[in-house]
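input
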Amino acid sequence: MDTHSPHFVTCAASPCDAAELSRVHLTAWLETYPNAAAGIDADWIRKNVGWVVTPEGVARWREAIEAAALRPEQDFCRIARSTDQAVGFLCGHRSDVATLGPMYVLARFAGRGIGSRLMDEYLEWVGVRPVFLWATTYNERAVRFYTRHGFVDSGERQLWKGRLPNIRMVRSPHPVATRVRTGTADDMWA
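output
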C-alpha cells in the first residue's frame, strides 16, 4: 500500500530503487555524523561507509530489497519519495523481536513527518514485539525522535569502528488494547 501526503509518498522499495537508496544512505551519513570530538569527518565516513554507493553496495541494497519482497513476514524495507527523488527509507527485520535499521531521511526533508510516517508503518508491521535499534549518542534529533515513538535507552553501548558512539534503544511490545470488565466478588463463584 502506498501512503501519500501532499509532498511525499511512502511505498515498498523495489530493486530498481537500490542505487537511490545507496545514495540517500551515504548522503544521510555525510549530513548526520561528522563530529570533530569523535574524530569523524567526511573522509572517515567515505572510508567506512562509502562502499554503499559502489556496485557491490548497490547490489547489497538490491538483495535486501528483494529479500523484503520475498519474505515480507520477516523483512521490511520502505522508501519515501518526493515528486522526483528518494528522500528517506526505513528497513528492519522481525522474528520474536524486531530490529530497526537502517533508517534515514535527508536533512533538507527533516521535520515534514516523513520519518514518523515511515516509523508508524514499521511499528504497525512489527506488531506486538519488542523493537531494538542503535542510535548515535550525539545524534540528539534521532534520539528525541525515537523517544517520541516509545523507545528508551537500554543502557547498552557500542563504539562502532572505534569512533562512533552508539546507544541501544528498545521499545517494549504494545499489545492491542482490549476492553476489560472489572471483576466483582460474584465472579469468584461463577
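quick obs: Residues 176-190 have pLDDT under 50 and may be disordered.
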